[in-house]
Write a structure and sequence with these properties.
This protein is of the alpha/beta class. It is about 35% helix and about 20% strand. The protein has two domains: about 60 residues, Orthogonal Bundle (Helicase, Ruva Protein, domain 3), CATH 1.10.8; about 200 residues, 3-Layer(aba) Sandwich (Rossmann fold). It has eleven helices and nine strands. The strands form two sheets. It has a seven-stranded mixed sheet, sandwiched between helices. It has a two-stranded antiparallel ribbon with strand order 1-2. Strand 3, helix 7 and strand 4 form a beta-alpha-beta unit. Helix 2 runs antiparallel to helix 4. It is elongated and about 65 Å long. The chain starts with 14 loop residues before the first helix and ends with a strand. The protein binds glutamine (GLN). The site of glutamine has 11 residues, from loops. Glutamine binds next to loops.
């Protein structure tokens, strides 16, 4: 027989009352209502439909405390993904942490470009600077026969990406620590894909929103944001099989330089793709 939970006697707050508090977040978030809904769903272990179906449902005292604690942190600007510990990317729910970048919807563009290539059934693929493992795991979810390496220079990111890999049981992905190509000598791939740090240290964007809570190691690069893009472009040729592809995410004003770098490094078929906002965001080329 189903046991009907008895509400805690101290409880007085309903879902709909807490949703009204979203107005308090408007100074720190453009998505205040959604943020509040996501926090409530996280605390209740329910989806958003539940919030609208049961607006009069009471929260227990501990759920109210949890809501208050997370809501206060959101008021201070902490990213929702850090509060819930997860972020959706390519329909995968990934664990996130402050050790690395929170996956962005824009980065799904790189996955789309990669899936549009006609690679061998058992293609060897490398995701450089994998962070949460987002790109590698999204590709793994679509291509069970690809052999995928996902590397990161930061040990905590490697551990996080591997934890994410394990939760999906992707045995065709290997995650390990490597500072770009440092641990990959002699290895070659059919596709190298990366969302490296590309923001200039002087960019005002770093003082706003979620990025304030993300590590500089995942965001900022020397030489006005170009240092890591440049390292990858210049070393990739050595690690690509003939005809192999390189796909890079970059800043919306970096397309010209990235195309030029790739061209100087001997890549062909160079093309830049726009993100969801119509801005240049990813460039692809192949080794001849
Ligand atoms: N696209 C991210 C941002 O602008 C930065 C990602 C990166 O540096 N790789 O916040």
């Amino acid at each position: 027989m189903a046991v009907i939970p008895v509400p805690d006697t101290h409880v007085s707050v309903t879902i709909s009352e807490l949703l009204k508090r979203s107005d308090e977040l408007t100074t720190v978030s453009d998505t205040s209502r959604l943020d509040t809904e996501v926090l409530l769903c996280h605390i209740l272990g329910k989806n958003r439909t539940f919030l609208y179906t049961w607006p009069e449902q009471l929260l227990s005292t501990s759920q109210q405390h949890q809501f208050q604690a997370l809501f206060s942190r959101r008021l201070k600007g902490e990213p929702i993904a850090h509060l819930t510990g997860t972020r959706e990317f390519w329909s995968l729910s990934l664990n996130v942490s402050s050790a690395t970048l929170i996956p962005r919807p824009d980065t799904e563009l790189l996955v789309e470009i990669a899936l549009g290539l006609s690679l061998a059934k058992q293609a060897a693929v490398l995701d450089l600077g994998t962070g949460t493992g987002a790109i590698a795991l999204a590709l793994a979810s679509e291509k069970p026969h690809w052999n995928i390496c996902a590397v990161d220079a930061v040990a905590e990111a490697v551990a996080l990406a591997d934890e994410n890999r394990q939760q999906f049981g992707f045995d065709h992905v290997r995650v390990f620590q490597s500072d770009w190509f440092s641990e990959l000598s002699g290895q070659t791939f059919d596709l190298i894909i990366s969302n490296p740090p590309y923001i200039s240290a002087s960019d005002d964007h770093l003082q706003q929103g979620d990025v304030r809570f993300e590590p500089c190691s995942a965001l900022v690069a020397d030489k006005s944001g170009f240092a890591d893009l440049c390292t990858i472009v210049s070393c990739a040729g050595l690690h690509l099989n003939p005809g192999g592809w390189l796909i890079l995410e970059h800043g919306y004003e970096q397309g010209d330089e990235v195309r030029q770098m790739m061209s100087l490094a001997g890549f062909s078929g160079i093309a830049t793709h726009a993100d969801l906002a119509g801005l240049e965001r990813a460039t692809i080329g192949h080794k001849t």
